[in-house]
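pasting for the record
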Amino acid sequence: MKAAVLKSFGSKLAIEDVPDPVIGTGEVIVDVVATRVLSYMNEVFDGTRNYALDLPVIPGPGGIGRVRAIGPDATKLRVGDWVFCDPTVRSRDDVVAPDIALQGLTAAGPGGMRLQQHFRHGSYAEQMRLPTENAKRLGQITSEEASRWCALGTALVPYGGFLAANLQPGETVLVSGATGNFGSAAVSVALAMGAACVVTPGRNETILADLVRRFGNRVQPVKLTGSEEHDREAMKRAAPAPIDCVLDIMPPSVSPTVVRAAIMTVRPYGRIALMGGVGMAGGPGLELPYPWIMRNCISIHGVWMYPPDAASRLIALVRAGLLRLEEYETTSFGLDHANEAVAHAAANGGPFKLTVIRP
């Protein structure tokens, strides 16, 4: 089969023929139809992000495809089924605290690296092998629709944060990082889950206005000034009710004071989900006040990705018409043009924009 291979950090993807994946027990082979290109994939490939990848590797975090072959433990999947290939691979021998690898992207800790040694190759290929439980049935779609369904991979990340924070219908939410690619997805996901209002702080007034245009007055934008105290009070005033839940999904480049201003808008007994990158590029940490957390009974959830059933639940929200994939503008590239796709994704990583490779 043809695949895009990363042989060394800092090099271009090599488009070449590689052996077809071989199925084993507990595994599925999928013909990849469409796979998203993250806006920061260029930083993964050049080593800037220092992601744990055992090279050479076929990168690509998940995708949309059709089942080519199934193992003996698959009782619902059928050859030809349309599926979402969930890139979050978990070890099977500890359900309480499984090790995790993001197939085709990175891994966490020694256990995650062991997982990656087997499920290393991702979706920038004509076929990919994945654990049986990671092939999530979509129902019937067309090949053309597959590109837009790649947005599941983006929406799943904030969905995992809201599940951890136990977001309930009718609650007021604040999304810290709402003008970014994952943050804008968080706005749409929160509304799909029944949030009464989503407060959207940011500096880009054009994007803030676009969020209101897309979703109406359930979105309350706040223009940030850079003053921690001023911005915190402005966010509180914008909310029509006390803020029940805050999701932070800011990138590593953002100052922790901006993140702290948003987090500390949450009401007493409120919940916070941390999914961003504060401190990952060095510099100071978040430094939340201990007395404020304790006396206000604040629940803080660190969240990396999402639970195993999240993809199927999110697919149900799409099928119900609550989460609209039509919001996404997709640009597609063939596998031979994978390097152009990576460059395009880096230059076009805004809200509701999706760069896709179609092997």
